[in-house]
Each structure stands twice: as C-alpha cells, then as structure tokens.
Sequence to fold (177 residues):
Amino acid sequence: MAARPVLKMGDPLLLSRAVELEAFGTSALDSLLQDMRDTMLAQHGAGLAAPQIGVPLRVVIFGFESSPRYPDAKPVPYTELVNPVLTFLGEEQEDGWEGCLSVPGLRGLVPRYQRLRYEGFDPQGVRIDRTVDGFHARVVQHEVDHLDGILFPRRIRDLTRFGYTDTLFPGRVMQDD
Ligand code: NI
Fold:
C-alpha cells in the first residue's frame, strides 16, 4: 500500500471512459482504495478517481475535514464510491474555482450543478444514495467527470478564468503542487 504517481493532463489514460466495477469486497479493490487514499492524502487532494493512478475502473474517493487546496470549503465526509450515477436536481449552476491533482499548479472557474443526487455502491456493494449541494456536489461532479475522461479545463466556459494558482491568488495560502 502506498501513494502512487498521479497521471497528468496529456496522458491518454485520463481521456478514456472507465468501466464499471463488477466484483465487490475483494482484496484487489481493498488495495486499490488504500493506494487511492494514500495518494490523495499525500497530495492533500479533495478527491481522486481511479483512472488518475492508471486504473480504468469507475471508482472514486473524496472528502476532507479541511483542505489546504480549498481553504474555504466546508467539510465533506470521506466517501468511497463505486459505479456512481448522478442526477442533477434543478437547473441551477454555480461557478467555482477548481484544480486537479492531474493538472498541478492551475485553477479554472468551472460551472457545476448546485445540487444533485448521487447513487452508487460502497466497496462492499452496499448502496449509497445521497442528495448534496455546494462544494460536495462540485467534488462529485469533478470526480465522476474523470470516469468519463473529462478533465476540468474542458468545463471552463471563459478561458480568461484559467491560470496558475499562485498568479491568480497572490498572497493566498492555497496549496497547489
Ligand atoms: Ni481531478
């Protein structure tokens, strides 16, 4: 079990659709999740998708008590989510600054649905069904995008709102490396 290298934008593995996990409660899934968690914690990420460490399965993790990358974000419970399905609730979207461990040092202003329901399974195959909003909803949309081969820069509507974190937010303590 160990932190693994995170693939960076430009790697074709980040552009393909990941496949549904079929076997729950296996030691292979356990070790994948352990590696994902170690990797996310080592880099202070708010979330991580399996394709980011080169595993093309529909598995994501997210959550933090406080995030040095997103100092203003409210806590999100640590969640391991397999085969997620999203249902957007309402048309309302809101803009927020996003980064990604696969796009180090950069942030962009990304519109996301404000509220959504996510369904899926925990690693043992127990159903997860939650309705969330705000940053929690944003993180889920970002991570599920990874499963469909989409990185956040493709979601930016106005590319003048895309740049280097330390230049966009000078003097701001906002980890991004
Ligand atoms: Ni990401």
